[in-house]
Amino acid sequence: QLAPFAIAKCVGHCGNLGLCVCNKPDLIVSQIYDPIWNPGTGQSMIVVDITNIGALAAPVSQARLVDPDTLSNDVQATPAIPAGGTVSIVFTLGYWVFDPDAVLEVTADFADVVDECNENNNTMTYAEQG
């Protein structure tokens, strides 16, 4: 799956619209699943899907989950992801995130180590009422 981007980001030929295909990885947070409580560890577990929508494989990076209400966060390694591939990452926070509502932000490649087609599409917010 190739994504069109402005000429400045392009490697290759351009079409009639002045857009072309970016020949790089492009990581997005594609899904944040509802948190679950793990009574054995006393933690909220949040599973997140990270997808590479770019044309090339993405190298190993890190993703971060932040609770903006408490500033608690968890950083997890993200393995290399082939073009078009998706990986699931499990984050944990040491409390129940619904208090009474939950707002969580997840950022793929939060340390900005992957040279991507679009560096502005790495974050997704989860917001649900408890």
Automatic annotation (TrEMBL):
Superkingdom in the source lineage:
Bacteria
Q: Which residues form the signal peptide?
A: none
Q: Which residues form the CARDB domain?
A: 24-125
Q: Name one Pfam family in it.
A: CARDB
Protein's name according to its UniProt entry: CARDB domain-containing protein
Q: What is the lineage of its organism?
A: Bacteria, Pseudomonadati, Pseudomonadota, Gammaproteobacteria, Cellvibrionales
